[in-house]
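Researcher: Let's run the pair from yesterday's discussion. Sequence first, then tokens, for each.
Model: Starting with the first of the pair.
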Amino acid sequence: QVLLVESGGGLVQPGGSLRLSCAASGSIFSIGAMGWFRQNPGKERELVAAITSGASTNYADSVKGRFTISRDNAENTVYLQMNSLKPEDTAVYYCNAEVVVSTGGSRVPLGGPRDLWGQGTQVTVSS
């Protein structure tokens, strides 16, 4: 019922920047924490950045000072601004959200919170 749609991936040169977006749509009662993960073939999916509903943030050590996570609660959207990109940042990036769904725009929650994932967007950093 609720879908996370990612956009903003692409090919950039080392030192370049990209801005990823992830918008949640559907019958949403509330959204808690949101985050970005990345994964390469044969590797585990790793947390890149996370943000709570109160805008408290957490970053992987490898991206601190270069990436910034933010959210727009009115638009149910989370962003990842990626600056000073390095080849090792190359991966498929997935957004994640803790979502409580509702039915048909109802203000009544349907069940408890669930973890939802975006479809993934490729980020390639190469010269």
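Model: Moving on to the second of the pair.
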Amino acid sequence: QVQLVESGGGLVQPGGSLRLSCAASTSIFTINTMAWYRQAPGKQRELVASITTSGRTIYAESVKGRFTISRDNAENTVSLQMNSLKPEDTAVYYCNADKVLVRSTWSRVDSWGQGTQVTVSS
């Protein structure tokens, strides 16, 4: 019922910038919270940032001041502007609908796709 498609990843030098985008498509869910996660090789997936319909945001301490999450509620899209990138930001980035409303029930989707690869290297 929910499809998430990430894009915008690529290879960038340290200190550079990238903008990731995620398009969500759903026929029965109302998405309240969308989030970006990342997973580096050999590490567990971690939350990078999240944003609610009302605009409340949460950022991982490691990206505060460098990354900015935003969304278009009407189109159910979420973006992640990443500035001052560091090698440790290298990972596969995923978007997810962390809080959705199905009729009158709040749920978490956790339907992970392929993500988009971000590589920060010289």
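Researcher: Give me one sentence on the second I can quote.
Model: The first strand starts at residue 2 and ends at 7.
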